[in-house]
């Protein structure tokens, strides 16, 4: 298997921190349909994406995998026949970081391409 030529984000070169509650609310207000899930170090943002069938769901999942790979930030996915739940948090900051919201925006952009 060969390595992809897609540029990969290196988050280790950037200082990341957990966002404050007000920063989370501000970031979340800029995303449609994303909600807070969990609390404490397990707090996350998540959204359920719905599709007509399994084929469309899996096409979306593959797009999410590409975003996750290029951003080097991997969500938890719950994949079903006609829907996929995408859940982001940043484990190393024990909360939510700007990275989570940036990746959510990129996933939203996938649907604009369809």
TrEMBL record:
<dbReference type="Pfam" id="PF01329">
    <property type="entry name" value="Pterin_4a"/>
</dbReference>
<dbReference type="InterPro" id="IPR001533">
    <property type="entry name" value="Pterin_deHydtase"/>
</dbReference>
<comment type="similarity">
    <text>Belongs to the pterin-4-alpha-carbinolamine dehydratase family.</text>
</comment>
<dbReference type="GO" id="GO:0008124">
    <property type="term" value="F:4-alpha-hydroxytetrahydrobiopterin dehydratase activity"/>
</dbReference>
<keyword id="KW-0456">Lyase</keyword>
<dbReference type="InterPro" id="IPR036428">
    <property type="entry name" value="PCD_sf"/>
</dbReference>
<protein>
    <recommendedName>
        <fullName>Putative pterin-4-alpha-carbinolamine dehydratase</fullName>
        <ecNumber>4.2.1.96</ecNumber>
    </recommendedName>
</protein>
């Amino acid at each position: 298997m060969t390595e992809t030529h897609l540029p990969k984000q290196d988050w280790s070169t950037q200082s990341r921190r957990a966002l404050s509650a007000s920063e989370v609310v501000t970031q979340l207000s800029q995303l449609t349909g994303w909600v807070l899930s969990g609390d404490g170090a397990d707090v996350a943002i998540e959204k359920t994406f719905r599709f007509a069938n399994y084929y469309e769901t899996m096409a979306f999942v593959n797009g999410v995998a590409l975003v996750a790979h290029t951003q080097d930030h991997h969500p938890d996915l719950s994949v079903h026949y006609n829907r996929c739940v995408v859940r982001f948090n940043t484990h190393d900051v024990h909360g939510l970081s700007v990275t989570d919201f940036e990746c959510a925006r990129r996933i939203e952009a996938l649907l604009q391409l369809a």
